[in-house]
Amino acid sequence: MSRVFSQEDGSIDTASIITSRKKIYKDIDLTFAARTMGDVFKKTDAASVKQAVKNILLTNHFEKPFTPFFGGNLHAFLFENIEDLDEMEIMDHVSAAINNYEPRAIIRSLKANARPDYNSIELIIRFQIINTFENVELNVELTRLR
């Protein structure tokens, strides 16, 4: 667990005051499963950022009102000829979407694998959460049904 430190300026004669604050990321669980107490489950820290990255990648352009180019728009790649797909172009779209819309994540590695036999694209994304040393791996598989 990492903490964010700040130092307050003071008189030269006195010692500085050092405070720490832990940054907690919170989000609601999008499965909306009800808890026994009637509330919904919450996601915190790494699970929250992982869910946000996945939602960004699975959102198509023009799905979010007033932000037409939000999202990874990865479903557009499924309806191109998969044998002609450039995996570098897919990785560029993924990294641009995460860099533009998720400031809590830093991409450490990214791999795209187009599988024409299954009409699918597999993504493996490893990213680090800001203010922590925690590395998270996210596997996303997009499949065309027909």
Could you explain how this protein is built, in words?
The chain is α+β, with helices and mostly antiparallel strands and 146 residues long. It has a single domain, classed as Roll (Nuclear Transport Factor 2, Chain: A). 23% of the residues lie in helices and 32% in strands. It has three helices and seven strands; from the N terminus they run ββββαααβββ. It has a three-stranded antiparallel beta sheet with strand order 5-6-7. Strands 1-2 form a two-stranded antiparallel sheet. Strands 3-4 form a two-stranded antiparallel ribbon. The radius of gyration is 20 Å and the shape is globular. It starts with a strand and ends with a strand. The model is unreliable at 1-15 (pLDDT under 50).
Q: How many strands, which pairing sense, and closed or not: the largest β-sheet?
A: 3 strands, antiparallel
Radius of gyration: 20 Å
From the helix content, strand content and strand pairing, which structural class follows? Answer: alpha+beta
CATH topology: Nuclear Transport Factor 2, Chain: A
Count of beta strands: 7
Quick one: CATH class? Alpha Beta
- How are the strands of the biggest sheet laid out side by side? 5-6-7
